[in-house]
Each structure stands twice: as C-alpha cells, then as structure tokens.
Specification:
The protein has 10 helices and 10 strands. With about 230 residues, the chain is α/β, with parallel strands linked by helices. It has 2 domains: about 90 residues, Arc Repressor Mutant, subunit A; about 110 residues, NAD(P)-binding Rossmann-like Domain (Rossmann fold, 3-Layer(aba) Sandwich). Helix 1 crosses helix 4 and helix 2 packs across helix 3. It is globular.
Amino acid sequence: MSPENTPRLREPRRRRDVLPETTVARLPGYHSVLSAMAASGLATVSSEALAQASGVSSAMLRKDLSYLGSYGTRGVGYDVEYLIYQIARALGLAQDWPVVIVGAGNLGHALAKYGGFASRGFSVVGLVDADPDTVGERVGDLEVQPMAELEALIERTRPAIAVIATPAEAAQAVADRLVAAGVRNILSFAAAPLSVPADVEVRTVDLATELQILAFHEQRRTGRADMTEASA
C-alpha cells in the first residue's frame, strides 16, 4: 500500500524535532501552494498535483509529509486545510513571532512594511538604524530607533528573530550585539559571512548570489556561454 493510500489520521512515525533540514526548507513552499489552493476553494489535492505545483517529485513530497504524520486518504489525496494546519504547526506558525529589523534603508523599509509577514505569524516590533537622518522616521506603525537603543529594544520586545539589513561591513558588529543581547535567530541580507556561537541560527539571503545562480541557468538555457567563447 502506498503512503497516500494510508488513512491520514495515522500517528506520526517521526518526531517534529528531527525533521531533516531539506524537508524544513521545502515546507514553506508547500504551505504557500496549499494556501493558494485553499483560497481558490480546493478542498483536497493529490500528491501528484501538489508536487507538480510545488516543483518537486511526488515521492519527495510524500516523504516530506510523512514526517508530519500526513499520509493522505485513499482515492482522495490530502485534505488541503488539514495539511495547511499540520505544516503551520510544524513551522511554528500557529503563534506570533516578534521580529526586529536592524537597518532602515530601502530594504529595511520594504521589509518593515511587507504585509505578508503578519498573515504568516511574524510581527515586526522594532526598526533601528545608525543614520541620524533616518532615526525618528515613521515606517508603517513603527518609528525608527537609533542603534544605541538596540539592546533596550530587544529587552523590551523580546524578539524571536532579528533581521540584519545593513551594509556588509556593519553586519558582524550588529550580529555580535544581537547575540550578546540574547537573540538566537538571525536572518541576514548582508553579503558577508557571520561568525556566531553554535547555539545561534543564521540564515543568509544574498540577493547578488541568487541573481548569479539565475544568470548561470539562463546562460545554460540560451547557450550564451558558447556565443561568448566563439567571439573571444
């Protein structure tokens, strides 16, 4: 019997705290696709349809979802709303996560005003910047605070996550202050590696690197590398 043909209410085989990192990385994508399906009125979805919409194989999808204890229903597939709930619970989206953003430039402004965070359980509770001309500005419901107030802001708001949206040369010093103040989860948009203690989780989003990867795939798709070599 295939995994999808087993009743979906079967107890999980594995604990959530041993989810593979590769599975965790794919869960937000599944959650987004399922949310769109739910918004369109879809009640159930097969593993093949969900896998195709998520850009993965159906075998990989079924394996990922089995870690959550979700196996589908024979002849029906997965209950969309129930699967959204399972993934949200696994990702911790059933509660509100306060977030502080360090760096109120263009990127920091955009992140602070992004409405999609609230709908996914993230609440931006603070925004700080080192530029005196930026301090005091209103960004949505927030007022930009000076860097000198960072530790006090963290003490007051107790953020679960801090976002670094500063220039690369300032990122390590900011990370050091965040860690010293008790922050244990950092999302960095700075194009610089960060050195942090082993108990601090860091995720880095390097937009330039992502563009380079896309350029590689476009070059391979269009054959522009051959054209460049031929003209050399």
